[in-house]
Amino acid sequence: MSDNELQHLLQDDREKLDALYEVLQAERSCLEKRDLDQLNSLLQKKQTLLGAIENNDFRRRQLLQKAGLPASQTSLTQLKALLKQNSSHAVDLLDAIEHRLQQCRELSETNKIIVHRSKLNTQRALAILHGSQPLENVYNSHGTTGSSTIKRDLGNA
Known about the structure:
- This protein is mainly alpha-helical.
- Helix content is 72%, strand content 0%.
- The radius of gyration is 25 Å and the shape is elongated.
């Protein structure tokens, strides 16, 4: 296994993960602002980055298998244990990669929650407009509140 090739892959992983983290932060901002045009371009960038990260993972696993490791021992954790014997710089790089991966997971989960809440709010608003839910706290045409189970077309809401 070439140390330079592995080092290059790990450095590339770190750069890609840093870029992914920035995209996820921008995605969060777009989700909060509901900027769908910008969000679409960010989703394309994110997809490209995820594909590149997956490709690097595949290449790294191949390198480790060529070096004689079984396929079941080619994870980052196994690689870190192997590199602790040889290169402290590579171990530091792996620590940085693992840290950034955790940050990306957390930010991705936050974005997932924002999307879910937005979806619920949209569904609730549509249900009110369609009249498919009882309207307990919505004023009617007489200026009073009350339960109404009348379904109506969106144009008549």
